[in-house]
Structure formats: C-alpha cells, structure tokens
Amino acid sequence: MITETRTETKTAIQNPLGLKKIHHVEFYVGNAKQAEFYYRKAFGFSRAAYMGLETGNRETTSYVMRQNRVNFILTTPLSPEHPGSEHIKQHGDGVHDIAFQVEDADHAFHEAVKRGARPVEEPHDHGDDNGMVRHASIATYGDTIHSFLSYAKVGSPSKSSSGGAGTAPQTEEKYAYWGPFLPGFTAQEVAGEEVGIQLVDHIVGNVELGKMNYWCDFYRDVMGFERYITFDDKDISTEYSALMSIVMSDGGHNIKFPINEPAEGKGGKSQIQEYIDFYRSAGAQHVALLCKDIRHTVAKLQENGVEFLRVPDTYYEEVIDRVGAIDESIEDLKRLGILVDRDDEGYLLQIFTKPVEDRPTVFYEILQRKGCKGFGKGNFKALFVSIEEEQRRRGNL
Questions:
Q1: Start-to-end Cα distance in the chain
Q2: pLDDT score of 216 more than 60
Q3: Alpha-helix runs per DSSP H in 67-211
Q4: Rounded distance, CA 67 to CA 198, Å?
Q5: Which of 286, 326, 140 shows the shortest CA–CA distance to 204?
Q6: Burial of 303 (0-12, 13-18, 19+ CB in 10 A)
Q7: Average pLDDT over residues 365-389
Q8: pTM as predicted
Q9: 3-state secondary structure of 248
Q10: N or C, which end of the chain has less CB nearby within 10 Å?
Q11: Which helix (H) or strand (E) holds 75?
C-alpha cells in the first residue's frame, strides 16, 4: 500500500534546526585525483576548488566538483591514521557527509543534540583569509554524518575595508565568506562539459532490517521532518526480494530522504541487503540528480561511458496505457532506457545508473519532474527485475 502525506500547511513553519538547503555531499574516496577525473569526464562536473598539500593541508586532499546547484566534495585521507582511511577500508568509496547550510550552526547543533542526536563535532569557527564559517556535525545512519554550516555568502571584500587584499571586510556579519567554496580551499577551476544536472532531488539511505522506523523517527524528532510517502513490501517486491521505504521530507519538500530497509523475500537477497553486506553498514545508497531535459542529459552521460540499468523493451509497449499522454517520444525513451511514471500532479522521467564503484553500493538516479512529486512507484516492478538480473550476474541474488 502507498500512502501520500500532504502536510504543507502544517509543516511550513516547522524547521526547528533552521535548515536552508543541502550545501554539499562529501565522499570519502580511495583516490580523489582519479575520482575527480571520473566525475568531470563522465558526469560533466567542473572542478571548482582544491585543498591538499599545496594549500597547507597535511591530512587530506579534496576536490570540489560543481554542476549548477550540486556540490560534491571528493576527499582522500593522506595517512592511515585519518578516520577517513577506516571509512574507506570498511565501506569502499561512499558518502561521508550530507551537509546542510543552516541559519545558525550553534543553534542547529544544540537543538539537534537536545532532541536526541549524537554529536560528532562541536560548533567551531572555520576560517581563512577569505572569511569565517561556523561548523558543527551530528551522526546519522551508519558512519554517515550531517554537518551544519552557517555563513553569509558575499561577493568580494568591500571597497571600504582598510586591511587590503585578503582582509575580511568590515561587516557586522561575523561569519561572512567570499572564498571559492569553504575555508581551506583555493580556487582551481577545470571545466567539465556540463550534461544538464541541476540539483540534488533526494538522497536515499539504506538501513538494516528493523531500523527503518527508528531512523524515520530520528528525522522526525531531531530534524523536524515529516513522513511524506510510505511504500511497503507489496509496493516494492518481486518474486525473489522486497524492501520497504519511507520518504522523510522537510516542511517545504526541498530536502527529501527516503529510508529503505530490506523485507523478507522468497529466498532472494534484496538489493538493500546486498548493499548493506558490501558497504558493511547502513549508508547512502544513491543520490538522485534533477535535470531539465532528461533525454539530453542521459544521452550525454551514455556518450561519456556511464552505464545504466535497462528494463525489457516490452516495458514500453504498455507505458502509454499506464501513464497517459506525455510530451516525449516513446521511441526516444526506449532508445535511452528512460522510465516514466505519473501521479495526480503530473509525471516524471527517471533512470538509474549501475553502481559506480566495484562494490555494488553507490549509484545515481537521473530524473526530470513534470509536475509529479512521487518517486516512480509504477516503475518499481520493472526496475527491480533489472536490478535482480545484475545481482544474479554478481552471484548475489
């Protein structure tokens, strides 16, 4: 059964931590230099900033990858003692930090801890010659964290500043920053060939059996989120495996976190359990990236070598009967492997990459929304059959 909860009126004023947006997603990776090349050449991100030995950081190397409103940080630790090294050992390359820009990092942190969050980093100043940012963080599922960042982005030092180049402008806003990204980074622009990715639509977390409600309660009680849509194993199941999912959302539905857990199947291993087995804990399964023209974006990604899941061609023989008239050519969608689904407010187009790591863990969803606020429920059956075929090839079904 599927339940949609519309709570705009009730939740519009509920933002206890003062969340503004997802600021960035940071990945711990085994080789940031090579990962940077992959995301630039395959996904069309541009390198915007760099931090490493040359900038005085003796602990990590990081690249900021940007495409429109999406910011990824790719970070590699430079010693085995760094906690990122253990993260990579246990999980392989994966999401370490889903970071939020907030109104006040101190308030967000202390309110979250008061509501039951486990602290990771106490609020502290983080600055360089380009200004100051306030930073704190809490733990969420697995080894994933949420950072809170507060600052006022300004374009450049004011002309009235008396301190000269590199001196913070005379402003009442203490946490003002005009650098290329965050303190410690230096601008290092290497352009990628943009593919049309616009922003992060949602990030899916996979958690252990029996933990879905626990983490949904965490996002409700700590972050002030609401249950937006609920899927059970009748909605998301095949002959072999099943899962359950609850979509948690902030009041404005700008930040959406589906939480998945495995469900009992007929002897098969669900994709969620496969992820947990290879990631060795709960973690972020996939990042959904919104685009304006999915046909253009997917064509470019395929041209760049990104591999996608494919559903049987028979899917397209009945799609119009199921979703009704759409603007796109069915033949175009079939050629590219793009799926379609509809809700009461419109339709969406979506496609999923294969895992982008050697472990069957992290992957991406590319989607375009044409009014639809759902998550493609009508595609679950066909999609999961394709996923299970990949699991069978890996010997993991």
A1: 25
A2: yes
A3: 83-91, 105-114
A4: 7
A5: 286
A6: exposed
A7: 83
A8: 0.91
A9: strand
A10: N
A11: strand 70-77
Express each pLDDT in 142-191 by its tens digit: 999 999 999 987 665 544 443 444 444 444 468 999 999 999 999 999 99
Is 197-394 the same fold as 8-190? yes
Fold of 197-394: 2,3-Dihydroxybiphenyl 1,2-Dioxygenase; domain 1 (3.10.180)
User: Amino acid identity, residue 356?
Assistant: V
Of 190-204, 261-275, 289-303, 315-329, the one with minimum mean pLDDT is 261-275
Instruction: Give the pLDDT confidence score for residue 167 in this predicted structure.
Output: 46
What whole-number distance in Å separates Cα of residue 8 and Cα of residue 5? 9
Whether the pLDDT of residue 119 is over 90: the answer is yes
pLDDT, averaged across the chain:
89
Provide the pLDDT for residue 74: 98
Helix (H, G, I), strand (E, B) or coil at 279: helix
Extents of the domains making up the chain? 8-190, 197-394
- Site of tokens 């990081």: 62
Look-up of token digits 């246990």: 90
pLDDT at 237 over 70: no
Q: Which of 200, 98, 91 is nearest to 140 (CA)?
A: 98
β pairing state of 186-190 and 119-128: unpaired
Could you tell me the strand order of the sheet in which 339-343 lies? 2-4, 226-231, 242-249, 256-263, 197-206, 283-291, 363-370, 346-352, 339-343
Q: How far is residue 310's CA from residue 337's CA, in Å, rounded to a whole number? A: 6
Share of the chain residues as helix, strand and coil, in percent rounded to the nearest 5 = 25, 35, 40
Bigger pLDDT: 268 vs 121: 121
The conformational region for residue 259 under phi > 0 = left, psi -120 to 50 = alpha, else beta, is beta
Give the rounded distance of the alpha carbon of 368 from its chain centre. 16
Coil, helix or strand at residue 224: coil
Per-residue pLDDT tens for 58-113? 999 999 999 999 999 999 999 999 999 999 999 999 999 999 999 999 999 999 99
Considering the segment(s) 8-190 as one domain, its CATH architecture is: Roll (3.10)
Count of Cβ atoms closer than 10 Å to residue 154 Cβ? 16
Q: Which residues of 320-354 are buried (b: 16+ CB within 10 A; e: fewer)?
A: eeebeebebeeeebbebbbbbbbbeeebbbbbbbe
